[in-house]
Structure formats: structure tokens, C-alpha cells
Amino acid sequence: MNRLSTCILAFGLVAGAVPVAQAIEEPAYTVERTYDQGFEIRAYAPVRVAEVTVAGPAEDAGNQGFRILAAYIFGENRGKREIAMTAPVTQTPEPTKIAMTAPVTQATTEGGFTVQFTMPASLTLQTLPEPLDPRIRLREIPGKRYAVIRYSGFWSDANYATHRDKLERATAAAGVQTQGEPIYARYDPPWMPWFLRRNEIWLQVR
Length: 206
Description:
By secondary structure, this protein is of the alpha+beta class. It has helices spanning 58-73, 157-173; strands at 6-9, 29-34, 40-44, 47-54, 104-109, 112-118, 137-141, 144-151, 178-186, 199-205. Strand 2 (29-34) and strand 3 (40-44) form a beta hairpin. The protein is globular and about 50 Å long.
């Protein structure tokens, strides 16, 4: 499998493209079970996403899609309004921006790669502002369950492959059936020291 055939990119993927927030909202989930083999089962709630499909190769597509979606959440939308990162949600006069959340996803499609930003949980498809860029789509993704392994270290193919294989062996040994391609999750900007980085790999549970 291509390392980026399905992956999650940190907001720092494009260094300097946007400021990195101090408190980034993440999709809501509950931990259903933690296994001694070093992984856990998470149940994620449905999320709303803004997404765009761009051509490859994978890393170029990630950068391009990131910039397009970052422009949307930082004000290139109709009815520009500021969405607070914490409750309560307030609206203020323009110009405004939508709060960033984590993670950002990228997945292989027939037309290239689909890059997604998860929208704040307080927003629905009805209350999200309309994108000015016609390439951007807004949609809801249903809740899913994942087997997840968390690790630190460099964003190298070797480090990814080591932990992907570890997760695949661990789920098989525990009798946990999975499906689909692994999802690679990065939560930190490139300047984060390698030993402090939060990396994850997700496998969807059947």
C-alpha cells in the first residue's frame, strides 16, 4: 500500500501556510476497549467535513488540498462569520474565519486524492457557510469504529510501516476484524521534536 493512499495530515503539513492554534478541536470519540497488545478500539461520532479532490502525486495533492481548504476556513466563504473554538458559539461582523479542527484527511480516489478538513462539531451542513471555491464540497461522514495504535517518532516510511504491521498483527491476534486501508494520523507541525510527536494509525473495525 502507498504510504499516503489514505492518510491524515497535520495542520503543519504546509509549514507557514496558516498559524497553528493552541487548542485544536478533534472529532469526538469514546474508547470502547484497550488491548494489552498496544492498541484500542475507538467509536467516532459522525462529523461534517469540507473536502476537495486534487490530482497526485500524494504529497503534492496534500499540499494543494490543504491550501484550498485553509482558504475556506479562514474566510473565503459566503456570510463570513467567526466560529469560536469553545462554547458558546458566537457570531461577529466580517471579516471572520472558521476555527480549525484536527485531523485533516486525505484519501485516494479515481480522480486523484480527496483532502478533508473536519468541521467544528457545533456546525451542521445547514449552518456551515457556502464555499466560494466551487471545488470544495461539504458533507457528513457517519460514525465509525477504529482500531488505533499511537506512537511517536519521525514521519518516515519505516516508522509508519513498523507500527502499521504491529497494529495489523495485534488486531489479528486479538480476533478484531478490520477492513479498508490504514489511516495515517499526524497531529503535530513539522517543527515539533520527533520524540514529542503524536502519530496514529487507524484501521476500521468491521
